[in-house]
Amino acid sequence: MKMKDLPEEDWFVNGHTACPGCGGATVVKIAMKVFGPDTITYFPANCLLVFGGTYPLNSFKVPYLHVLFENSAICAAGISRALKRLGKTDTSVVAFAGDGGTADIGIQALSGAAERNEDIIYVCYDNEAYMNTGIQRSGATPFGAWTTTTPVGSVEAGKGEYKKDIPRIMMAHDAPYVATATLGFIPDLLKKLEKAKNKKGCFRYLQIYAPCPPGWRMDASLGAKISKMVVDTGLWTLYEFEDGKMTINKKPKMTPVEEYTKLQGRFRHLTKENLAALQKYAEDKWRKDQALAEAYS
Amino acid sequence: MYEVRFHGRGGQGAVMAAQALADAAFVEGNYAVAFPWFGAERRGAPVLAFTRVDENKINIKTRVYNPDYIVVLDEKLMDFVNVAEGLSPDGMAILNSPLDPEEVDLGMSVKTATVDATTVALEVLGAPITNSAILGAFASATGLVSIDSVKQGILDIFGPRIGDKLAEKNARAAAAAHDRIKIGKCKAERTYPEAKKWLPTYQEMPLSLATKPTKTDSGLVGPGSSVENKTGSWRTFTPKYDEEACTNCLMCWFYCPDAAIKRLEPPKKVGFDMDYCKGCGICEEVCPADAIEMVR
Ligand SMILES: Cc1ncc(C[n+]2csc(CCOP(=O)(O)OP(=O)(O)O)c2C)c(N)n1
């Protein structure tokens, strides 16, 4: 599907209360244009739940469920199995979770659903922290980033650990479809959303980068630009893992990570040594991802 | 006891102002509480914060519904929020506005103090952050707390969060605003639409596979009902669109987080729905033809 072929109609409509420039809202708007009306959505606690579905208003024109933070993948799997009992195999069941709900709190449910190969699409919109509760670190927060729980002072300078690689964990489950995407590469993103939709009857995982201007201390207009830069620096590899085969979709330009970090206040305090560590992480990541693609070719 | 309700936008510091006022009253030997109203709204959206002050212990835990004073940090709020709702007729409004009190319309005529807190903040802080300046105006308009206590309150509350140096500057902004208020009575010409007072029961919610909202007495509910939220009121910057220059590449349409850009029938290209545009500026940033410019 080309961008111009996306429907004009939205299934995630305006009037939602996301912050100006919210990457998560854009990801969901576009994903819903691709998934379309025959979709049932599930949400754990996160920003999206709050800005898209605070009672009695709702931004989704499709059925919308929320149970708990920990069990997105299980609940989605339950919906999908019930539909199967009713003879409905075409309906997409989609869980939209934040990175906190995916990398930390919901990971056992996610792992179980992937291992049982449940018929669901799990979309993690990755804004790299627990944003809804006011910016706390998650497993998916990158090295060096300031959050309220990784403060910057004389002892600590932002998060000391590196980003947890969830797509790689999903690959270790041999899930039929795992893909990473960002808003910066439109045809790639649309291709992956479409594949996830059309590959029925199995577990599908998408991790989509979702810039958060307040949480990243960034100008609200930079979401698209930063979504491209994160790939160019090598901090985010675009790839697909389909039926046991991994394909890298974009060779990073290996732009210095500083070009990326200097646009975001959450990285403002980084020293030369910190930046060198992050640069090394980007280079190592690219090397490892290539090796993985080679191994899974 | 007196009760104060602060009106601001997410990110403007209304909560810190409410806390600094409570601290100032506490310094003078009173009991005081301050707390925000946790709506589910975000940066730029209207927010509320409250301060209660009494000589005795305060046991009331509710929101303030009938304030003695309202404090408005952002004058554009008055265009769509009934800031004077529930305000005691003997109460007072303290507003950030360059206008005279007589020129302001709150839909009810009450004693009003205006101060151009934005200008004060630009002069003293170099940024349009008005939560400290407005407190100086509160002190001089009401006489309930001294300006010295307000300055102390600002140092106590702002200091640990933004650093002592910046807190000092904010205390100076309060002092500067203290002497620049105008007092009078505001107009009562406009009416605000009746706000939603109740939530629908679950029986009124459309069931299961419905894909359209239902209309109830309290407005739309159910799937897609958020279109009732006119989030365009959050906007500070507005896109100015040059159709001539536009190449109809649809990048702005794709990236608008608020789906506020619509494709139009040719030969028209795209249109902007100002009811929803929050003014983030992504459209200007992604436009390869420079056909969009964000203006104040
Ligand atoms: C079991 C449980 N713990 C904590 C919370 C509080 N809580 C609600 S949303 C949220 C943050 C969600 O973060 P993330 O999943 O990253 O999504 P985001 O808000 O960033 O979109 C938290 C901690 C909760 N609702 N349930």
Write structural notes for this entry.
- The complex is a heterodimer of chains A (297) and B (296).
- With 297 residues, chain A is α/β, with parallel strands linked by helices.
- Chain A has one domain (3-295): 3-Layer(aba) Sandwich (Rossmann fold).
- Chain A contains eleven helices and eight strands.
- Chain A has helices at 23-35, 47-52, 72-85, 99-104, 107-115, 166-171, 186-198, 213-216, 223-232, 257-261, 272-295; strands at residues 39-43, 64-66, 92-98, 121-126, 177-181, 204-209, 239-242, 245-248.
- Chain A has an eight-stranded mixed beta sheet with strand order 2-1-3-4-6-5-7-8, with helices on both faces.
- In chain A, helix 7 (186-198) links the parallel strand 5 and strand 6.
- The longest helix of chain A is centred in the C-terminal third of the chain and has 24 residues, at 272-295.
- In chain A, 57% of the residues are buried.
- The model of chain A has no long low-confidence stretch (mean pLDDT 96).
- Chain B is of the alpha/beta class and 296 residues long.
- Chain B folds into two domains: 2-185, Pyruvate-ferredoxin oxidoreductase, PFOR, domain III (Pyruvate-ferredoxin Oxidoreductase, domain 3), CATH 3.40.920.10; 231-295, Alpha-Beta Plaits (2-Layer Sandwich), CATH 3.30.70.20.
- Chain B is built from seven helices and 13 strands.
- Chain B has helices spanning 14-27, 117-124, 133-142, 147-162, 164-178, 251-255, 282-286, and strands spanning 2-9, 31-36, 46-54, 69-72, 92-96, 111-115, 182-185, 214-216, 219-221, 238-241, 261-263, 270-272, 292-295.
- Chain B has a seven-stranded mixed beta sheet, covered by helices on one side. A two-stranded antiparallel sheet of chain B has the order 8-9. A two-stranded antiparallel sheet of chain B has the order 10-13.
- Chain B is globular, with a radius of gyration of 22 Å.
- Bound molecules: thiamine diphosphate.
- Residues 24, 45-48, 69-70, 97-101, 127, 130-133, 138 of chain A line the site of thiamine diphosphate.
